[in-house]
Every structure is written in C-alpha cells, then in structure tokens.
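Encode chain A's predicted structure.
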Amino acid sequence: MTNTELIQFETKLYDLKGQIILRLPDDESAKLPSRGQVAVNGTINDHPFQTVLEPDGNRGHWMRIAADLQNAAGLDAGDSATINLEITHEWPEPELPADFVRALSAAPEKVKNKWNEITPMARWEWIRWINETRNLETRAIRIEKTVSKLNGEHRRPCCFNLTACTDPELSRSGKLISEGR
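Encoded structure for chain A:
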C-alpha cells in the first residue's frame, strides 16, 4: 500500500475498561503494511487526527480515541463512526512516561544523543516495551535496560513481539481483550 491509498470504513466505538476504542475491521486491517504498529493520518466523522494504530495480537489493529478527539467529534461508546485512514511515514512522537523522562535526563550524553537520533518509530517501540508491564519492579528494570542498551549499540528493543497488544490494562497474553470482559 502506498501512502496515497485511503482506507475507509464504518465502525462502532466501544468502551474497554474506561477507554473508548475502535477496532479496524479485519479486511481493512489486512490492507496495512505491517501486523505491528502503523502510523496514520486520518479522520473520524470528518475530524482530523494523527496516530499510531496498535496491533491487537490477532493480526489486526485498534486505536484509542483520545478525549479531545471524542469531544471534537461528539463521539462516545456505542456510537458509529466513519473512519478514513492514510498511511504515513511521518510518525508522531510518542508520549514519554514521567519515570522514563527522569531516567533519560539523568542518562549519559551518549544516551540522550542516541535517543534524539533514532527514529520516532524506534522511540515508540522502546516506550511500548517499557509500558508493557504492570509490575513496577519490572518497569524500573526495563527503564534501566533501555538506558543501558542505548548506551551500547542498540537502537531498538530486542526480543520483543511487535505484533502483540502491549497495553497492560487492555490486553491479556499479548492480545487485546474482547469487549465486555
């Protein structure tokens, strides 16, 4: 798929553990170039957004509808929405968790420089790997390892399933949980 092809579909939004999300229909998700994350520009009911579609762990994709987009589009769980997506190579910057920001600010200059040199896609992968766990000890270890690996030769996390759903609140065993569970 080139970044000029448009993916269009209608879908229903739903609440999954207090977050409004949408799942891409399987046939539309299959049009994407990766089973992992994919950066897109899009509209929901004609309201523009830029995001990174998340893998659901089942060869499909989903996205969280941010509160500001929900408000702008007047959407809530249960509503149907018209979605237009266009793949982009311009990845938005990931939101950095406060604990990682602290570790990065205390890191050696080499780490800070490499963090700024790697692609936004690679930064998304590191943040997904850090955020994948609910266990605070594991999270602290992952942040420490991220700094250590960036201080070495690594530019991306290794041994990480890029097609898994990594939101610990919304996934079980690397798969997006079903509505109502």
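The beta strands are 6-12, 14-16, 19-23, 38-44, 47-55, 61-64, 80-87, 171-172, 175-176.
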